[in-house]
Amino acid sequence: MSSRERPRSIVTLTTDFGLADHYAGAMKGVILGLSRDAVIVDITHDIGPQRLLQAVFVTQAAWPFYPSDAIHVVVVDPGVGSERRAIALATPHGRFVGPDNGVLSAALPEAVREQAGGSPGPVALPPDCRAFEITERRYLREPVSATFHGRDVFGPAAAHLSLGVAPSELGAPVDTLLAFPPLRARRTPDGALEGQVVHIDRYGNVITDLRAEDLPESAFTVELAGQAVRGPVRTYADASGLAAIVGSTGYLGVVLPTGNAAEALGVDVGAPVTLRAGR
To answer: Where are the domains of the chain?
Structure first.
C-alpha cells in the first residue's frame, strides 16, 4: 500500500507541556515531519506539572472514544533523562507511547492494575498486551536531549508507528510496566469512602476518585478541605452553592455552578476526600 493509499493515522497527545512554550509545538512538528498525513489530536497539554495520576485520569477518560488503531502519546515525565524506560505498548484498543512511570496505566485492564504494589508499582502484562522499550536509534530524533524526550523519543516513535512500523521494531520486549492501582476510593471499616482529588477541570469542578457505583443510595456528605458538601444532585441546575454530582466520567465531583469549586475550597489535585452516608 502506498503512502497515498494508507489510511491517515490518529495520534493523540496528553502532556503537561502547557501552551505558553514551544514544547507541544515542537513535538507536533517532529511527528508531522516524519508522518505528514498524521491526524494529531490534542487531548490536553494542561496536565499539572508532574501530575502523573491526573494524566492517568484524563487518558482513561478520553481513549475509549477513539478507533482501536489510534496511537496515544502520554508525556508527563519528571524522570526524563534518567534510567526510566521509554515504552511503546500495544493493546487491543490502541497503541500507547510514553515513559514507564505509571502514566500508561489507563491502557491496562483494571484487573492488571490491581496487582500494583505501590503508586505506581510493577505489574505483569496480560496476554493481549505487548510492550517494548524504545531504544532503536533509527526511530529516534538525534541527538536525543536529556530533557525533552517528548520531542526526541516519544514523538518520533509515534510517527513511525503511524507509518506502519511495528512496535516490536522499536526495541526489546518487556514483561512488566509500572502502573497505578485503579482510581477508586478506599472503603473504611465504618463504611466511609476515603479518596482523593484526581482532576480539576477548566470550570473548577473538583473531580474525585469516588465512583458512582460505590456511592450510598441515598443522601451523603463529602468532606473536603474542612467543609461538608451535601449530595447528590442530578444536574448542575439542581445545585445551590457547593454540591456533589456524578459527572460524565462516572466519578463524583464537587461543583459550584456559575463559580469555581476548586477556588472556593482552596484545593488542588491530590487533596484528600471522605464521603459518609447521611447528612
So the answer is: 10-179, 186-277
Identify the helix (H) or strand (E) that includes residue 250.
Answer: none
Residue 120 bridge partners (DSSP)? none
pTM metric for this prediction: 0.93
CA 35 to the chain's CA centroid: 24
| CA 217 vs CA 48, 240, 245: distances in Å | 33, 21, 13
**CATH domain 186-277 topology:** Elongation Factor Tu (Ef-tu); domain 3 (2.40.30)
The grid coordinates listed for 264 are 472556593
At residue 2, what are phi and psi to the nearest 5 degrees?
Answer: -75, 165
Provide the grid cell at 274.
Answer: 471522605
pLDDT in tens, 100-120: 999 999 999 999 999 998 889
CATH architecture, range 10-179: 3-Layer(aba) Sandwich (3.40)
Cα–Cα distance measured from residue 4 to residue 152, given in angstroms and rounded to the nearest whole number:
26
